[in-house]
Specification:
By secondary structure, this protein is an alpha/beta fold. It has a single domain, classed as Rossmann fold (3-Layer(aba) Sandwich), CATH 3.40.50.970. The protein is built from 11 helices and 7 strands. Helix 2 crosses helix 11, helix 3 packs parallel to helix 8 and helix 6 runs parallel beside helix 7. The longest helix has 26 residues. The chain starts with 6 loop residues before the first helix and ends in a 15-residue tail after the last helix.
Length: about 350
């Protein structure tokens, strides 16, 4: 297969695949306040990353970053269906997942500044964001390594006879790792309450998915394990929300896992040093027309759910949150040398 000249066409060729127990996706009636909340979550992710991008360029933060810009609808749509006691596992691109699950902007910003008040006490940095208090297991940068962790958490939930669920985020590249197949197989045979969320942004670093995956959609792989598989428009927060709601209800009812493939696109490079020379001319511009924030804003304005003035106020409120987080991080104390010996287990 060759990379399509129109990646949007592939993204919009969405269908539920013939896996065991699959149901027809029906868009739910979502209250207006929840639609606005979805947009606000996406806006918080976008503005948070816009800010840290420039802070990194200014040399004010150590380490590196992998930005989530363009994929915000996935994190927002999935996590809006989860309770605080549900858990997620994330990737080397975790900011959006962490924010959507409820990790505070203050603690995330402090972590990026390597301060002791960071969500991981300055021991994780950008690629290991998380906070167990809100069900965000600190992210794992190893490709697909969060999948068996999520399956293990789901096993614990089932053994304890709770109705909690685990959601696991991973990329299209992760679907070729052994951990992907082992985790899904175990979740399938034991009917575990876990949702596997593949964020297919078309590129594993610089390699187009068509060069490493033979099936038309990654969600087709669900059939091999006898579980539900569905592909949705990952830039449409409502579509992601709808598919996840069904998957969560399925999992809480003890009916097992679901593989959700979200067709999306990262607007930036794989990391901040990636110039994206491997992308076809015009590809980014085509996807930018379907920016998830733009799609959601246009939908809500068209349906008269919110006014332009209200959007402006929302953006200002989020900007104040982020400015507060920056000030908090910059004024927080550095970790002490002896803190390196804490939270260490033999």
């Amino acid at each position: 297969m060759k990379p399509t000249s129109s990646p949007i066409r592939r993204s919009l060729g969405l269908r539920r695949l013939p896996s065991r127990g699959a149901q027809t996706t029906v868009e739910p009636a979502i209250p207006n306040d929840q639609l606005i909340a979805l947009y606000k979550t996406m806006l918080r992710i976008r503005q948070f990353e816009d800010r840290i991008y420039f802070l990194f360029l200014q040399g004010m933060m150590p380490g590196t970053i992998h930005l989530y810009q363009g994929q915000e609808a996935v994190a927002a749509g999935v996590c809006a269906n989860l309770r605080k006691d549900d858990v997620i596992t994330s990737t080397h691109r975790p900011h959006g997942h962490a924010i959507a699950k409820g990790v505070s902007l203050r603690s995330m910003m402090a972590e990026l500044f390597a301060k002791s008040t960071g969500c991981c006490k300055a021991k994780g940095g950008s690629m290991h964001m998380g906070d167990m208090a809100v069900g965000a297991i600190p992210a794992i940068a190893i490709v697909a390594a969060g999948m068996p962790i999520a399956t293990g958490a789901a096993l614990a939930f089932k053994m304890r006879k709770t109705d909690r669920v685990a959601a696991c985020f991973f990329g299209d590249g992760g679907s070729n790792e052994g951990a992907f197949h082992e985790a899904i197989n175990m979740a399938s045979i034991w009917s575990l309450p876990v949702i596997f969320v593949c964020e297919n942004n078309l590129y594993g670093a610089s390699t187009h998915v068509s060069k490493v995956v033979k099936v038309a959609q990654i969600s087709e792989r669900a059939a091999a394990y006898g579980i539900q598989g569905v592909t949705v428009d990952g830039n449409d927060a409502v579509a992601v929300f709808t598919a996840t709601r069904q998957a969560v209800e399925h999992a809480r009812a003890g009916q097992g896992p679901t593989l959700i493939e979200c067709m999306t696109y990262r607007l930036g490079g794989h990391s901040r040093r990636d110039a994206c020379g491997y992308r076809p001319e015009g590809e980014k511009e085509e996807w930018a027309k379907r920016d998830p924030l733009l799609l959601m804003k246009n939908r809500l304005l068209k349906e008269a759910i919110c006014t332009e003035a209200a959007w402006d106020q929302l953006a200002q409120d989020v900007e104040r949150e982020i400015e507060d987080a920056v000030q908090f991080a910059q004024s927080s104390p550095d970790p002490r040398p002896e803190d390196a010996l804490k939270d260490v287990y033999a």
